[in-house]
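Report of the visiting student (M.T.), summer placement. My assignment was to run the structure pipeline on a short list of targets and document each run. The first record concerns AIG1-type G domain-containing protein.
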Amino acid sequence: MASLDEDLCKIKDLIEKSTIIEERNPARYHLKLITHHFNQYRKMTFGERDSNKPHKTILMVGETGTGKTTLINVMINYMLGVQREDKVWFEITDDQSKDHSPTTIITVYGVYDQNSPDDLTIIDTPGYGNTRGISFDKEIAMNLLRLSEDLHEIDAVCLVIDASQTRLSDRQIYIFDAVQSLFGRDIAENIVLLFTHSSGAHPKNALTAVKEAEIKCAENDKKPVYFLFDNCQSDAANEEYETIQEQSWKLSHSGMIRFFRFLENIKPKTLQMTQEVLQKRKQLEANISNLQLRVQVKEQKQNELKQTQEALEKNRKYVEDNNDFEYEAEVSYKEKIPINPKFWHLTKKATCCTVCQENCHYPGCWWVRNLSRCSVMRNNHCTVCTNKCHYSTHVKEAKIYVTKTKMVKKTHKDLKKKYDDKIRNGVSLVSKLEEELQELEKEKIKLVNKAFHRVEALEKIALNADSLLTLLHVDFLIENLKEANEPQKAETLENIKKRAGEGKQRALGYIRYFI
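After the run finished, the structure tokens were exported:
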């Protein structure tokens, strides 16, 4: 056990490595950090990593106002061995509210103190679930994917919740659902609940809220694993409330002892399955985005066919006499337009096929330069576009294809020539148009089935199979599966909707509001 002199030397050393924020009791200091900026995150470190030391990596997730930032600092002070009688408080977090740079979406704090038994990496996701929209959150997910390639494994996913809550808000359900949607089934036993603003009493109502929201987490004797904290440790000392403040300190200190004991005993999980889950989610979204474009084309072609049939019927005499006539029809065409992102600070680019004129991956892999490495490519060919074209026929830019219509004057003569010089009557012209529609329908059915199988694949490996991000597309898929005469597959998706429960259905409204 460290002597009093050793403790004083340790605190003095930490103060020398900090800058003063506020002179009071406890005095507030900000640790001097070294900051490294990467494409998808920034890393802020205190001290130097010791490769021979045990190392823990945790992900912190919580809605604004739950005390996540304070809790990170509580964790740091525990690691540094700070006691209440030291009358100091160290902070590692900073305010990103004025910084909207994409590189600061995720902050990785590395705490490598030579006096601590463990090195610690804390991944903080500021902004998750805020009003900047679901596209912003998808970028966070993609950044976490890129980050996972550097980190390789994770020890704990910490869901931060206010202990006084009686019900999780739609936004909280969405935040936790979105984060859990990133992981494979194997991570469940590493997810824990951190209750803040706690009085130390059993958080019965908060636990009920978590259960009703069907949040998956580690269990002990079939009960959620949780830890209690009071976020008052950094408050200025007040003689009138000295007893309460002392209890607050003890409660949080006790919670940290239990939490770090959990970290010592839990087996870290590799992020390989997480990468598989994210890959399949990206492919599912790419399939559905492309499918929506093809459905629009098919509907517009159907409209064109109907107008052509009406024109042929109306001018039957001219058709029989093989005479020419003029008529108007609404025809579809594709046009490439600039992407108009909802939020200026988001990078939005799409991978598009210039041959098929289709959006193969939107929003695309913004960090990929070589398109052969795009998520929708397999063996150098696209898995999404109609002709499965080589990646070299694709471009990545801030533009997407959209379908538009225009009224065009046509003649019977032009219509015949378009399809076949040997066509001699109106019936065969209509047949040719119907053949086009049948081909479009076949392609649409293939894509609908492919999207369904991606949902099935996610069911097998994802921790959160009935994710809100999947549920967003379920109604669209159900409708198209029914049209494709696939009632059993449609029923499977209907069951996923039912299983999702009332809480997630409410949260879906939250997502749709910000799309």
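Residues 276-443 form one domain. The chain has twelve helices and 22 strands. I thank the supervising group for their guidance throughout the placement.
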